[in-house]
């Protein structure tokens, strides 16, 4: 059976250091240590994720976040003209609010690169079923028929229990 291709938005990496939500932090740590590190999935981020991390004001935290990408050998995808155009369709169709361009870009990059799953702790703009339905409708109108699941790290662990 082939490995699932999973795209991570910035929130998943951030939650490795989210002491204020220990239950989500623990799930995120479990995902990285027992699934990513062991190669159970093909895991990707993008230059959009890196750019968001670069905006982190605390230098030490920025360094820790960037180190995660290297430590776990996360593959890096690029926002190209095709995915950028699709992101703008999500904004135009009001799938994603206009001030959340990066969220639209995450979905577009995952779509254009045929990811199986976009993983996020952002329940409002990314990881929810209504968003997934709306993205599917827009994607099909735009000629993208590969299914993309929008979910959170809880849904991709415990597969053998």
Question: So, CATH architecture?
Answer: 3-Layer(aba) Sandwich
End-to-end gap = 18 Å
| SSE order, one letter for each helix or strand | EHHEHHEHHEHE
Estimate the global geometry from the Cα principal axes.
globular
The CATH superfamily is known as 5'-nuclease
CATH class categorisation = Alpha Beta
**Biggest sheet strand line-up:** 3-2-1-4-5
Largest sheet: 5 strands, parallel
Summed up, the domain count is: 1
Provide an overview of this structure.
This protein has one domain (5-154): 5'-nuclease (Rossmann fold, 3-Layer(aba) Sandwich). It has 161 residues and is α/β, with parallel strands linked by helices. The protein is globular. It contains seven helices and five strands, in the order βααβααβααβαβ. A five-stranded parallel sheet has the order 3-2-1-4-5. It starts with a strand and ends in a 10-residue tail after the last strand.
């Amino acid at each position: 059976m082939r490995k699932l291709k999973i795209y991570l938005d910035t929130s998943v990496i951030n939650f490795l250091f989210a002491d204020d939500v220990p239950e989500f932090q623990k799930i995120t740590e479990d995902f990285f240590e027992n699934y990513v590190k062991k190669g159970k999935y093909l895991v990707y981020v993008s230059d959009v994720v890196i750019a968001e991390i670069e905006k982190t004001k605390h230098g030490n935290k920025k360094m820790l976040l960037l180190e995660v990408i290297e430590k776990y050998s996360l593959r890096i995808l690029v926002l190209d003209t095709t995915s950028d155009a699709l992101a703008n369709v999500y904004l135009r169709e009001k799938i994603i609010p206009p001030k959340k361009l990066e969220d639209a870009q995450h979905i577009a990059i995952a779509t254009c690169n045929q990811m199986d799953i976009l993983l996020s702790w952002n329940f409002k703009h990314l990881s929810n079923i209504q968003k997934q339905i709306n993205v599917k409708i827009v994607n099909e109108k735009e000629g993208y028929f590969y299914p993309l699941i929008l979910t959170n790290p809880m849904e991709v662990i415990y597969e053998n229990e």
